Amino acid sequence: MPKKLLFLLFCTLYDIEAKLADWTVLLVMQGDNNLSFSMHQNISILKKIGSTKNTNIVVQWDEPFKHTTSRYKIGLNKLVDNASLQQDMGTDPEAELVDAARWAFTKYPAQKQALILWNHGSGILDEKHSWAKSRGILYDFSSKKCLTNEGLLRSLKKIQHDVLGGKTIDLIGMDACLMAMVEVAYQIKDFAKIFVASENIELTPGWHYSGIFQELIKDPRRHTAISLADLIVHSFASFNEKRNNLYTQSAIDLTAIAKLKENIATFASICLMARERNIIHKSIAQARRTCTEFDNGNFIDIYDFYRLIENIISSKKNLSTTTRISILNIIEEGKILFKQCILGCRNGRTFSNANGLSIYFPRTQEIHHSYQATLFAQQTSWPLFLQTFITTKKKSALTKNPQKESYHGLL
After folding, report:
1. I want to staple 61 with a disulfide (CB 3.0 to 4.6 A). Which of 29, 119, 186, 318 is the partner?
2. Rounded CA separation 346/121 (Å)
3. Does CATH number 3.40.50 belong to domain 18-256?
4. What is the average pLDDT score of the chain?
């Protein structure tokens, strides 16, 4: 290609990129449930900030008793209706998420994209029962449907391929309970760079959108996915530190999660193959009893668990040197990898030993029916580890008497 033509092509591409907004942030808010009031609170906050030429704030939401899908660009003190649909949101969450991304990221192209899912959350577990017994991400009271973890994987794959032309989303956030899990992060790792979520339950109204977007629109070009994630985490902590002691919020580097998964898989395999099975079993049971856990006790902080296992194994005189060294080495490697994954983590005093990522480790011997469908479970020996070493225990002090407040994810 002639140098002049190449130069003109470069200039054209540069000009196109220069005209793009810096950020398009899409919030998918499922409010057809008991969170409708909080959803409108957050929308009112966003209206006071508004989009700019360099930052597009767009929202798709659902609310009770309206069989439509609302789509708006958030303007300063106004909502600009843009392609709202005369069909009920919540009937097919998987397809609706793809369609929302197609609308937002095509209609409002930008150099960086963020996708925020706002609703109840139940971590890696997909429930099949009524709302009285369970929760799910993007849970709709009218349709009794939610976006499953398998559905989330399929949706993000379609968004990447069909909407973004192979590009990964810069940031995925889940303003919902219990979603900062190794398994959730591994489920979405190929489709986003940074993940922001909470290990524990969230108080309504959720994230501190005023603190987030006021800072973002000041200088959107300066903000990377990492700095935006840091902004979300720290604004959430500042907003909650005087309200409750139960908050957690994490920023996770998804490019580092695969190595952590391999480390956990190796740890599980070493424990399963160890000759001193009884000693290992008691050590794991002891660590599980005292480990930091969240909500109903199905999820524990993986770093805290590693730390406790490390202390217990180090003191065991009746373990062979080979077994002890193998376990301690893989834990030490895991702690290093964990620190690489966690870009930022803030917690209330109740969860001072939380470190940013939880993992499924239920108290009872029954493995949840949906767990085997996750990528993490399919690609590691963790389910076999659970089945082999799982132990029942009483509820810990962390979850025995939770504060009686309105939770963003609890009835």
Report:
1. 29
2. 19
3. yes
4. 88
